[in-house]
Write a structure and sequence with these properties.
Layout: H1 8-16, E1 25-30, E2 33-37, E3 49-52, E4 56-58, E5 62-64, E6 77-78, H2 80-83, E7 92-96, H3 100-111, E8 115-119, H4 131-143, E9 147-149, E10 152-159, E11 165-171, E12 183-187, E13 189-192, E14 196-198, E15 229-231, H5 242-256, E16 270-272, E17 277-282, H6 285-290, E18 295-300, H7 306-311, E19 317-323, E20 328-336, H8 339-342, H9 344-352, H10 356-360, H11 373-382
Parallel strand pairs: 4-15, 6-13, 7-8, 7-13, 8-9
Antiparallel strand pairs: 1-2, 2-3, 5-14, 10-11, 11-12, 16-17, 17-20, 18-19, 19-20
Length: about 375
């Protein structure tokens, strides 16, 4: 899919569509002006080329956040960038962070026969999601031999005797009494995946009167305070997903062409590509309650479907969240085989505010995992 990180095919497709591609580093030097300097290997860009603009779209992405761990500079460690490109397979790996990327890479390396330990400061993995989701994923990773140290933090790292890294692990602030144990974990390498930050440093945004620490955008992805500047993808901090960036790009393109379109963020899918996969959309119970909704929820085990029996699959969960006053679905969370695929009808239901009565009456094909949705939907109606 990403053949040796070679983007020639994508670049050629852009040029074929009439796009002028200039390779190099761009810096805003004045309103309506970008200076491009050639970077290493970017011979297509002449030195100090100046481009004019009427509208500017910033799509510079994000980069990993590196927490201030004492001793990090003295041990072998990776961010996700190195973990996704290295030819090395560490025999033992400590993953700092139990978010989506941490869980995905932990399972990848465990399946390459690395001994993996995840250290997560929160009470569970994927701490933004429902507790049932965290529990189901934690159990699934545990079944593959991955050790999960929840409510724990790495306080210090140092070279381990014989090579590698020794991570000192302690209970996180607010950890339950009698919670996780303290002590060292030895590994060949540390993988730090504790979040990402926008790539907005040193590109000249301050020339436009913008805060270079971040770009707040409105519902059209226009940068607040700069009507001719737009921000798309990870750089705007709205939703760190490729599909969200693609949608935002379509919204910005439409507005640049004179149409008035908005980026509706009520139903952006959140997917984690572990096995079983995790897929969610809309609000969690806690978020719905904070929004002042009259909340009802229902759960079901997709392992009780005929499809799960035929696939010999289990360990998943369905969590549905409804606004009782409007009788519509406002959130859904799934853990199960290919959950990202059968989330689709729930994404549409949240986006279009489909009545619960209609959703519960949908005929789901047999045998599919989608059959797990019907009992939960009927429980919401009866509740």
């Amino acid at each position: 899919m990403a053949d040796h990180l070679d983007d020639r095919a994508a670049a050629e497709a852009l040029v074929a569509r009439g796009v002028t591609l200039v390779r190099g580093r761009g810096t805003v030097t004045a309103p309506g002006q970008v200076q491009v300097t050639a970077s290493d290997g970017a011979t297509a860009a002449p030195e100090d080329e100046v481009l004019g603009w009427g509208d500017l779209v910033v799509a510079t992405g994000s980069r990993p956040v590196v927490p201030p761990v004492d001793g990090l500079g003295d041990v072998p460690w990776w961010t996700s960038d190195q973990a996704l490109t290295s030819r090395e397979r560490p025999g033992r790996l400590v993953v700092v962070g139990g978010g989506p990327v941490g869980c995905e890479l932990a399972q990848v390396y465990a399946r390459f026969a690395s001994e993996v330990t995840i250290v997560e400061a929160g009470e569970g993995l994927l701490d933004r999601e429902e507790p049932e989701v965290s529990a189901a994923l934690c159990a699934a990773l545990g079944d593959e031999g991955i050790v999960v140290r929840r409510s724990s933090v790495v306080t210090r790292v140092e070279p381990a005797p014989g090579g590698g890294v020794r991570a000192q692990v302690a209970p996180a602030d607010g950890a339950p009494v009698g919670g996780p144990p303290s002590g060292p974990v030895d590994a060949d390498r540390l993988l730090v995946v504790t979040g990402r930050r926008p790539n907005v440093d040193d590109i000249g945004l301050e020339v436009l009167g913008l805060d270079p620490s971040g770009l707040a955008v409105d519902e059209r992805c226009r940068v607040v305070g700069a009507p001719r500047v737009w921000a798309v993808g990870d750089v705007n901090g709205v939703a760190p997903y490729t599909h969200a960036a693609n949608h935002q790009a379509r919204v910005v393109a439409a507005n640049l062409l004179g149409r008035d379109e908005v980026d509706d963020r009520s139903a952006t899918p959140r997917c984690v590509y572990t096995e079983p996969s995790v897929a969610a959309v809309g609000l969690t119970r806690a978020e719905a309650e904070e929004a002042g909704l009259d909340v009802a929820s229902a759960t079901f085990d997709p392992g009780e479907t005929a499809r799960a029996a035929s696939d010999d699959a289990g360990g998943g969960v369905v969590v549905l969240v409804a606004d009782v006053r409007r009788s519509v679905l406002v959130g859904a969370s799934l853990v199960g085989p290919s959950a990202d695929e059968w989330l689709g009808q729930l994404t549409l239901a949240v986006r279009a505010a489909v009545p619960l009565e209609v959703l519960a009456d949908v005929v789901q094909a047999f045998p599919t995992y989608s059959e797990a949705l019907t009992p939960a939907l009927r429980a919401l109606l009866e509740g």
